[in-house]
Design a protein that fits this description.
The chain is built from 15 helices and 18 strands. It has 496 residues and is an alpha+beta fold. Helix 3 crosses helix 6 and helix 7 (121-139) packs antiparallel against helix 8. GO terms for molecular function: small ribosomal subunit rRNA binding; structural constituent of ribosome; zinc ion binding.
Amino acid sequence: MGHSLLTNPKGKQARKEQRLSDRERSSRKARNSAAMGRMHSRGKGISASALPYKRTPPSWLKISSQDVEENICKFAKKGLTPSQIGVILRDSHGIAQVKSVTGSKILRILKAQGLAPEIPEDLYHLIKKAVAIRKHLERNRKDKDSKFRLILVESRIHRLARYYKKTKKLPPRIDYCQHTCGLREDTVGTSFLRFDWWTPGYGNERSGDLISTKLLRATKKVKNKNNALVDNDDLVMLEPEPNKPSFRVILLDNSSSSSKENVCKPLDKEEEVTLLDDDVSISMDGPYPQVCFSERAHSLIDENNKQAVIVRMLGRPIGYRALVNRIESLWGLTSDYKIVDLDNNYFLVKLASQNDYNKVVMGGPWMVYRHYLLVQPWSREFSTKENYPSKIIAWIKLPKLHYRYYSKELLQALASVIGNMVKVDYNTTDGTRSKFARVVVVVDIFKPLVPFIGVNGKKQMIVYEGLPFICYNCGKVGHIKENCSQGPKEQVVDKL
């Protein structure tokens, strides 16, 4: 019986047709995957990893769709990518799917608000990976494994670029350049426009920095396969909007900037302190000579360091190069900056842009290697002899404060009990949200925090945001209540 089946010509023909059909299905699947931009396939189950359709959000979720959209826009303005926003909403807010709450995905919400990245996130990270591999090959030319990996990554970039051009998510004339690891668009011959997608925020100046500008604009020359020198200073992308000034043009010409607050001051052209005859007084009395400067000289020094901050990491030291690499991706700076290594693990960071200064000072808390990076504005009273920065910037809330106090002058008077006020939340002064008043103050961490203040005989609670470890026993920053050295000690009584 079995022998007859093996020799049956109809059975052979059926098996041959089955093999042909399987081969045809695999080739069709390969053609479809080549046309798509996915780097992986869906699940193999009957539902293909598709979530069940739900029109309403879960009953246990109490947050409204408007609050979710506001949080998404707030995270996007801080420089987070759509995938990072989704992770935060899932882990911190309990929102597994934004679409089930708002009816739209995160990227579509960002596009409606004008906050979406100009290139897809997966393509951006692939090009970022290609840049890192090419930089590695410049230092290690004999690394054959990295050369092969670069070929694979660039093939994925070409594949994704073709797909996104087909779906009109990228301009049709944009192409990937292997020598510069960037996208460019030929206009006339070999000339091309500079495209600002490789500046911080990868196409959105409101976002944060994900690729180092110095890394992408390195001036080191390498040889290609034709032994021709290629300058890597063109590691930028092309701008499809000719009327929109690029980031480089804004830095070179401040007059083209649309914001008067974001005035970039070149750090290599700092004003020298010009001293007059009355600005210096020298005294030879005492055991050693003394040199004293006038108030005018100190004012000039303060003016030169007006956009400078003092940073120090809590819990562990950090090197100069490690700090440079971390803050480029952490702060998302859009202009020049300068880092000076001081004593006692302190660093002075000078920022050229006022917007960058505001973002660094008021955008904390900042975490580097799971440790807090304390940031405080520069002041003439600062000394590197202190083991920790004495002052930090913190947001404070005054919950249930009466609406009649929602004025900048009145809030400044209330915040003066805690520290110097730096900024008032726009929603507070505008009066659109009266649940709590929110201001930015300079807090002295060597002093106990003020938990309450009195306002016309009424007790007003103060809530601190973004501070590192706070001890509610002694009120100081840097440890928790269980590890407080000033805590009440339990008295052990021997029982006889």
